[in-house]
Amino acid sequence: MKVSRAQAALSRERILETAAKLFREHGFDGIGIADLMKEAGLTHGGFYGHFSSKEELIADASTRALKDTFALMSKQAERAQGDPLAAVASRYLSSKHRNDPGTGCPLAALGPEVARQGQAVREIVTDYVRSAVNLLMTLVAGKTRAARRQKAISTYAVLLGALVTARAVDDRELSREILEAGLATVKG
Amino acid sequence: MKVSRAQAALSRERILETAAKLFREHGFDGIGIADLMKEAGLTHGGFYGHFSSKEELIADASTRALKDTFALMSKQAERAQGDPLAAVASRYLSSKHRNDPGTGCPLAALGPEVARQGQAVREIVTDYVRSAVNLLMTLVAGKTRAARRQKAISTYAVLLGALVTARAVDDRELSREILEAGLATVKG
DNA sequence: ATTAGCATATGACGAGCATCATGTTAAAAG
DNA sequence: CTTTTAACATGATGCTCGTCATATGCTAAT
Predict the structure, then answer these.
(1) At B183, phi and psi to the nearest 5?
(2) Is A157 in contact with B158 (Cβ distance < 8 A)?
C-alpha cells in the first residue's frame, strides 16, 4: 500500500533514528535489516525503497548520530552555568551516558568499528572529531592556540577512553572510579 | 587423519593466535569460524575438537591477547632507559601500533564490542584493566596513592581514547596530531 | 472520476553463518 | 600386534543475512 509523501518521509526518518540507536547498541554487524525495520514498525522489504544498501544506511545513520551528539554537547556548553567544560564532561562521563550507548556518543559506541568501515563513514567521523576538538578548544584554558588545541584533543581522548573502559569493565565500583578519575582530570 | 598430541596442542595454539589476531582486526562478528580455521591452516570442522563454541574461543583468545599486551607493556616499562612512562606511551601511541590493531591493545581494537559480550569476556577484560592501572600507578608521579591511582586511570584513558580516535579518523595529518597530543599530555 | 505512480508488503534468492554427524587415518594404549 | 582413541576432513544442517522481484493498494495528478 502506498502512503502519503509526508508519511514516507516520516518512515525514512524513523528508519534512520532506529538505525542510529540500534547500531550504537549492537554494532554495525550486530543488527540486521529485518530486525531494524521491525523495530521501526515496517517490514524488511520496504527498506530498499529508502536506502540503496546497508552501507548507505550506516553512513546516513552515523551522520545523524554524530550531528545529534555534537549538537547536544554544544547546547550543554552554551547553557552551562559555571564552568562549561565541567558541564560537558560530567554529562559525558555520567553513569546515564555509560548505561545508554544507544543515544550517546557514536565514537564511544562504535569507534573501532568505524576504523573498519569505508571511506564515507570515516570522513563523516573525521568531520565530527574536528568539530568536537574545535568546540573543546573554546572551553579549555591555554595561552597559545596550539596549547589549547593540544589540550582539546587530549581532553577528548580522556572522555572517550574513560567511557569506553567504564563500559567494558564488569565491576560497578571500578567503572564508577574510572568515570570519576576521568572527570577529575578534565576539570583539572 | 589423526595427529600426535604435540601436533594437536600446536594446532590449538595456532587457532588461538590466529583468532586473537583476526578478532582484533575484524571484530568478533567480523570473522567466521571457517575463515579463521583456513587462516590457521585447518578446515572448519576441526574447530569443535578444540573449542566447544565460538563464545569459548572469544573468551580464550581475549585472554591470550590481553596477557600478551600486558606482558609487552610491562617489559617496555622495565627495559626503558630514562622515563618508563614515556617509553610505554610512545609505543602505545606510535603509528606502528595505530596501523596494526591485530597485534596491539585488545581494548583499543574491541572495546565497545567487549561491553556487549558475556560475563566471561568482560571479567577477563576487567582483570586486565586492573593490572594495567596497577602497572601505570608505578610509573606516574603523585604524592598520595590515591593521586597516583587517579593519574594512572586517566593516563590509560588518554592512551586508549587517542588511539581509538586516531584509528577512526580518515586524515593522516589529524591522526598524527591526535597521537602526538596524547603523548605530550601523558609525558607532560 | 480515472489513472498513473510509488511506498510498502510478501516472499524468495543465494551466500554465509555456527554447529554437528560421519568418515578417515594415524597415534596411543593394551 | 591388535584395538581403541581422537584429530582432522568432508559435507550437511538449519538459521540469518543482505538484496531483490513482484504484488498490492493508496495517494496524487489528471
Answers:
(1) -65, -45
(2) yes
Cβ count within 10 A of residue B45 = 10
At A89-132, the pLDDT tens digits run: 999 999 999 999 999 999 999 999 999 999 999 999 999 999 99
Grid coordinates in use for B53? 563454541
CA-nearest of A160, A141, A162, A144 to A152 is A141
CB contact set of A5 (below 8 Å; sequence gap of 6+): none
Quote the CA–CA distance of A79 and A87 in Å, as a whole number: 9
Q: Residues of A with CB below 8 A from B177's CB?
A: 153
- Give the mean pLDDT of chain B: 96
Closest CA to B24 of A115, A95, A157, A138: A115
| Interchain CB distance below 8 Å, A111 and B167 | yes
Alpha-carbon distance of A74 to A78, in angstroms, equals 6
End-to-end CA distance of chain A: 59
- pTM recorded for the entire structure: 0.96
CA atoms within 13 A on the CB side of A175: 20
Task: Enumerate the residues of chain A whose CB falls inside 8 A of the CB of residue B169.
Answer: 122, 125-126, 129
Contact criterion met (CB below 8 Å) for B73 and B88: yes
All three cell numbers of B85: 612512562
**How many CB atoms neighbour CB A173 within 10 A?**
8
Interatomic CA distance for residues A144 and A163, integer angstroms: 29
Q: Provide, as residue numbers in chain A, all residues whose Cβ is less than 8 Å from the Cβ of B170.
A: 119, 122-123, 125-126
Half-sphere exposure (Cβ direction) of A137: Cα atoms closer than 13 Å: 14
Q: Measuring from the CA of residue A4 to each C1', which nucleotide is nearest? A: D27
Protein footprint of strand C, defined by Cβ closer than 7 Å to any strand atom: A 1-3, 5, 7-8, 10-11, 37, 42-46, 49-50; B 1-6, 31-35, 44-45, 47-48, 52-55
